[in-house]
Amino acid sequence: MRYMSLIKIDPAGVPEGGPSEELMTEMGKLIEEMTKAGVLLDTAGLAPLEESTRVQLSGGKLTVLDGPFTEAKEFVGGYALMQCRSQDEAVEWAKRFLTIHGDQWEISLEVRAVQEPDA
Amino acid sequence: MNQADERTRRAVEAVWRIEAPRLIAGLARIVGDIGVAEDLAQDALIAALEQWPDEGVPRSPGAWLMAVGKRRAVDLIRRDRTYARKLALVGRDLDADESESGLGIEPDAIEDDLLGLVFTACHPVLAPQARVALTLRLLGGLTTVQIARAYLVPEATIAQRIVRAKRLLTQQRVPFEVPAGAQLAERLPSVLEVVYLIFNEGYSATAGDDWMRPALCEDALRLARVLAGLMPAEPEVHGLAALLEIQSSRVAARGGAGGGVVLLADQDRGRWNRLMIRRGFAALAKADALAKARGRAPGPYLLQAAIAASHARALTTQDTDWAVIARLYDALIVLLPSPVVALNRAVVVGMARGPAAGLALVDELAGSGELKDYHLLPAVRADLLARLGRYGEARTELEYAAPLARNAAERALLLERAAALPR
What we know:
A: globular; transcription regulation (chain B)
């Protein structure tokens, strides 16, 4: 099964200066470990929220809004697409990803199974 | 069991699946026997099941399990002097192991241990079925029940297969080590074969009424990726990974309504998973570059991956570059002169050089008496005959093929094709 892990970040919970060098090193190690374990299919961080565009459909009306969206309580900061044997395994990898962030971050992962066609 | 305990139990299981191979490999290096190592790892797992519900899951669950496993290994050796002497005989120094280990385990050492586990579980003294069971269990982190379910056999069958395999390794004094240099090249095919067999069992189920068991395909793919990480310089390892990534990309398009199968030519290529194809291409490029850099001719997995990649490049069946694929098969048949490869080659030649040329190869194969009970031989012959306008003969071939098919879905497909031929 494939699992999409959406990385949701609280803008108020980002340490000053963004991710530390240590975090980036740990992240690199974890990504390598997950790749070598045959689990990680694809992962990336997303460009800052200020650069995003919101395209919305409401009541049949399309609106296009440019960032920044200062009212956002949380935003998607990145994603990881994993291939795991179970949701529990995906959750275990998610825990490892969060653990390396230490106690400075307000961050959560939404782990969702990708709907596979019945084979 | 309350909800928190249930969550912890599930977490322990997930940790096991992730950590079991490294844990067993690390312990096998200490005790020199994968059977004993697995027992010790199981002890550590039981300790986790007992302690984590109260204490919580530790921050580094893998290191926790390894520490417990190593303590048990030391206990075992102190308790059992005979065992200690046996270890001394195979040149293992427990104290040295203890002092160097601790919790700061070197990643390189772990990868070496994992490789040792790979080559021991896939040792050529073991029959392929035994290698498969042992590999899924020790490297795949699957339980005996899960393996039995995947192979649709009783649990006792798999359990016995694993016990016997471990016993044979001990009896034959197979050392826990990574073969060096030329020996590695010699032993590699028996490793790759195991992963390939697991994938094929899932991709084209030989038993039961399901055409595919995707979980088994995923297990094999995962193992192939692990091997690529452990042996990054071996072109054939990347070739195997490339082959399986590309084959996996077709899983969604391959399953027809009602459990049937959709053949490559008829698949909706829009349903092919482009991410898997891209990953396959990347692995193939790596395999290709390594083979060239090391002055090696393309091996059988690299060639099969190149064939799969040629199909993946074609956006429609009509776009398929059959001439390229036929040339790849010309090379493959030399390395893998099996009747099944010969049959596939006949299909490809039929596309590249016309149905009459393909039919000549099939007839040659049929004349050899090989594959006489294999349903695809008459099925392929039928296809070539139909393309030559010989519908009556084609129908006879398909009706002959149907009862030979291995599962209900394949059987139904053959009869459907017979019925669809012009009268």
